[in-house]
Specification:
- Helices cover about 40% and strands about 15% of the residues.
- By secondary structure, the protein is α/β, with parallel strands linked by helices.
- It has one domain: Rossmann fold (3-Layer(aba) Sandwich).
- A seven-stranded mixed sheet has the order 5-4-3-6-7-9-8, with helices on both faces. A two-stranded antiparallel sheet has the order 1-2.
- Helix 9 (about 190-200) links the parallel strand 6 (about 180-185) and strand 7 (about 205-210).
- Helix 9 packs parallel to helix 10 (about 220-230).
- The longest helix has 17 residues, at about 55-75.
- It is globular.
Amino acid sequence: MSTPTLDLYLDLMKDVLSNTIYEDPPIPADWAPSAVYEPLNRRLGVDWPSQAHTMIGRRRLDNLQFCVESALADGVPGDLIETGVWRGGACIFMRAVLRAHGVTDRRVWVADSFQGMPVPDGDSHPADHALAAHTHNDVIAVDLATVRGNFERYGLLDDQVVFLPGWFHETLPSAPIGRLAVLRLDSDLYTSTVQTLDLLHPRVSPGGFVIVDDYHIPACRDAVHDWRERNGVTEEIEDIDGLGAFWRLTPQEGTTP
């Protein structure tokens, strides 16, 4: 149940995680070359913050809150996971939502290589070679100790947070994850997106949510559509902010999401 105090806490968490409070300058990128803080870019999640703990912007944070709180309110069983976490901000926010609602029986899984993007090899999809996301590893690669430290700064590092360090195809198959209520993908690449959906989508509970942060990237979008077609997934894909998208799994008959 929402309360003014709960809403204030989670709104403040969004402001702090995206650092719209102290307005750290962005790291210039091809798509956002300015080195000067621009409020609209930060709120939209199109710049690379130099200090903020998330780059996903306000509307994708709002969407994440909606998905987690909807799953809680509707009794959708399972934990929460993000695959590809950067500095950990979205996972920190998911843990904050659980804390705000007094939820103690769900975990937040933090899955990342903690060494950036993989260099495409001969088995990688051609789209991954074209994207060459690993060339940005000087920004994207954030080590595990730093991410753990970021959780600790918010007082949210506890036994409800579980780290899965390593490449997805190596860690996810044997990870002791049961059901998932929210699956959030932020892995950019075609191959990584397909691997994550193959391994984790079957664990998402009916009525649960799948969020794709990088849906605007052609390689990621193609991976999502190819995978859904192969697996007969037909739930409507909903836009979040022109960059990310999500869908909700059909609930079990007799339940009301």
